[in-house]
Amino acid sequence: MSRILMLYASNTGNTEQVMEIIKDFLQSKQYDIVVKSFEFDPIDEKEVLAYDAVLIGTYTWDDGELPYEVEDFYEDIEEVDINGVVMGVFGSADSFYDTYGGAVDLMADRLEALGAEVLSQRLKVDLEPDKEDEKSCRMFAEAMMEKILQKSHPI
């Protein structure tokens, strides 16, 4: 059974709802999921190495910025060799702002620059997830499952 670490930050509860949809879907597929909140749980960046994959959820603050709860992880992950680690980034955003979901892109770009195998799909949900977003969440989770499978059974 594959183990997935889900780290997230949620200000209004929207990113937490997205995380729950993804988590519930993955658990229904028999994945072992560990969830930690950037705001409330101690997170050691080296911990990402103990999992088959890592999903990071972040809301976008102001006009495309990372929330303060995520900044330490964003900076400190540089000290860990994440080359080849399977990762995905998701989050809530607000289409009212010029930069839609900028924090998701900032985090994904950073992880890619550090050598992680980041899902090409960056899941951004406009405010609270609706039924269509729930489908997107499941597709995102399926892409993560496929990436884990490819990593564990290379051709």
TrEMBL record:
Residues 4-145 form the Flavodoxin-like domain. This is Flavodoxin. Belongs to the flavodoxin family. It comes from the Bacteria. Keywords: Electron transport, Flavoprotein, FMN, Transport. The keyword Zinc does not apply. Its cofactor is FMN. The lineage of its organism: Bacteria, Bacillati, Bacillota, Bacilli, Bacillales. Low-potential electron donor to a number of redox enzymes. NCBIfam families: flav_short, PRK06703.1. Gene3D superfamilies: 3.40.50.360. It comes from Virgibacillus xinjiangensis. PANTHER family: FLAVODOXIN 1, FLAVODOXIN 2. PROSITE patterns: FLAVODOXIN_LIKE.
